[in-house]
Fold this protein.
Amino acid sequence: MKKKININGGDKMISFATVMLIAGIGIPIMAAMTSSLGKHLGSPVAASTFAFFMAFCIALLALMFTDKSFVKQIPSTPKYFFVAGAFIAFYVLSISFVAPHFGIGNAIFFVLVGQMLSAAVIDHYGLFGAQINQLSMTRTLGIFVMVFGIWLTQRT
């Protein structure tokens, strides 16, 4: 049975929230930089490739400083977990192609809406081993308020 997440108090939760806030800040920056690099190079695919190369190098460096005991777990890992890389590629490639024509704000708006919807479903059902956080009426209303707030920021 999966354990429900406890988000009340604690320095650990503040640290997690801070890390994710920084990651959230980085997403539109990465989108704008990759989009601009794609325009500069005349190739969104080349821009995405360079972004992936940098990400690979940084991840490889981080891996060098971690415990390598995970290697023996790879054969028993459900293969669909490895599809996560395809979602990363799709995001970077799509933002590189779409943002120059649609705008960074508009592109990120729809990314955020998609993230909120899929996160709610994943949490509700505990998909992919996620901690269960049931989709209550309060949480549903909160998601709608967030989507409305994001929509308001993009109105001209």
About this structure: The helical segments are 11-41, 44-64, 84-102, 104-125, 137-154. DSSP finds five helices and no strands in the chain. The chain has a mean pLDDT of 90.
